[in-house]
Design brief:
The protein has two domains: 142 residues, Aspartate Aminotransferase, domain 1, CATH 3.90.1150.10; 227 residues, Type I PLP-dependent aspartate aminotransferase-like (Major domain) (Aspartate Aminotransferase, domain 2). The chain contains 15 helices and twelve strands. Belongs to the class-I pyridoxal-phosphate-dependent aminotransferase family.
Amino acid sequence: DYKLSRRVNAIKPSPTLAVSQKAAELKAQGKDVIGLGVGEPDFDTPEFIRDAAKKAIDDGHTRYTAVDGISELKQAVCAKFKRDNQLEYSPDQVLISAGGKHSIFNLLTAWLNEGDEVIIPAPYWVSYPDMTLLVGAKPVVVQATIEQEYKITPEQLRAAITPKTRLLFLNSPSNPTGMAYSHDELAALAEVLREFPDILIATDDMYEHILWTDAPFANIVMAAPDLKNRSVILSGVSKAYAMTGWRIGYAAGPKQIIAAMKKVQSQSTSNPTAVSQYAALAALEGDQSCIQTMVTEFKRRHDYLVAALHAIPGIQCLPGQGTFYTFPNVTGLMRKAGCKTDVELCERLLEEANVALVPGSAFGTDGYFRLSFATSMEVLEQAVARIREFAEGL
Ligand code: PLP
């Protein structure tokens, strides 16, 4: 038995990746499993982006780059913030990293000390609490239920703040719920945050573009510009451009914080992959209509899936506003099936219905499961039929 570090013993492997892996294993054994656990677009990376990467290789962009990313890409990120968010950032306020996850990890490493508290609204993206633990800080989870459309209220935020609070995570549109905070809801959270000037806000905008609300996308910096000097925007090309495997994320925020994150990166991974940076550059600078094509398809699947799930007795499914996930309440189904937890329910669904789903408790909220609709309509229809059959057979 090896004595591993306290920090690594405090965390668990990503449950969403684990579900995908389990589904893949069962499939390899010849079982006809439908996996709805994955968190990546089923589309190929658009051709013009792939071409840019091929050209980058042929042009010899195969060496180390600047630790914080090539200057063209940092400038493209600044231009993106101006174009999409009407926000001004200079290249020294931007850091390019190896995926959105890496950007978050750099921020937590640069910002948090042992014992610091991090407020994480639940249902949360699975990695926030474990990444927080990994740097020795303490996750403080604030529950938002389906009744509040999975969004925390200003009162809940205030109640969670202590003298040790140093960071608040916001993720909108949200993985796993698909809900987005409105401009006004963010402004209301900002009012509370103004009273606590030491708290930094990490706004994870990874799904910014996968959104179908009438109102345009908003993050807290757009809703409360006076909080810009205490916010870090985290984003990347993974989801919007179907580029999960390329591993390019970026962060924008106060110069001093970005410089500290760059220092962390310089002593860990160094620059993100050179070829991928050129691909991301093409993505940000190229024709943005590729995003809309994918979003239209996600919305079509969403509309089908939400209605079909909601019609199954024991499932309550709210329409979402973006992403490619839905997060129905399944407490009714759990009762009927005699399952005490959603983990149990998901195990039963995997064994008896051959559908792989991620239990809500992986996202901090028991009584739910997350379905990813980053898969074809035919597969979704089959999955719904299997879940319906399971429910009706109880
Ligand atoms: N943030 C959220 C909310 C996500 O869902 C994901 C990916 O699942 C990420 C960040 C990380 O993205 P990347 O694959 O670029 O590391």
